[in-house]
Amino acid sequence: MLLASAVVVWEWLNEHGRWRPYSPAVSHHIETVIRAGPRAGGSVVLGQVDSRLSPYIIDLQSMHQFRQDTGEWPVICAYPNPTFYHPPLFYLHLSMWPRCGTQP
Questions:
Q1: How far is 43 from 63, CA to CA, in rounded Å?
Q2: What are the tens digits of pLDDT across the range 5-50?
Q3: Residue 104 in domain
Q4: Rounded to two decimals, what is the model's pTM?
Q5: How far, in Å, are 57, 77, 94 from residue 22 at the CA level?
Q6: Are the CB atoms for 60 and 78 separated by under 8 Å?
Q7: How far apart are CA 48 and CA 86, in angstroms?
Q8: Phi, psi of 58 (to 5 degrees)
């Protein structure tokens, strides 16, 4: 089954300056929290979806991922996944997509 949020890829910037994608399940969870609006509290607890990510919380206002055990704050961002758009639509969508930093 294809998730509705599969067209969005969420990534975080690692310590080597490389963008690393979250799993589809984590990306879906982030999108679900965003769609819930203010009642969700403005943060995403990644451990709710993947126990290996239990130290991580995403602050949606600052667009940073906080690691509770080390205090690290890497940047996160999202962009449309090109595999779900025909090429002309993807580039049009990408040009309108707000992202952080450089293109992942």
A1: 10
A2: 346 778 888 888 887 888 889 988 888 888 887 776 788 999 999 9
A3: no
A4: 0.68
A5: 13, 10, 19
A6: no
A7: 33
A8: -100, 130
CATH of the domain at 52: 3.30.720.50
Computed over its alpha carbons, how large is the radius of gyration of the chain?
14
How many other CB atoms are found less than 10 A from the CB of residue 67?
A: 14
Q: What is the 8-class DSSP label of residue 32?
A: H
Domain region containing 11: 7-96
- Which residues are 71's β-sheet partners? none
Cβ within 8 Å of residue 93, ≥6 positions away = 80, 85
Angle (nearest 5°) at CA 40 between 32 and 54:
75
In a domain, 102, yes or no: no
Name the pLDDT band for 103 (thresholds 50, 70, 90): very low
Rounded to whole angstroms, how far apart are CA atoms 81 and 79?
A: 6
Where would I find the H helices in the chain?
Answer: 24-36, 87-96
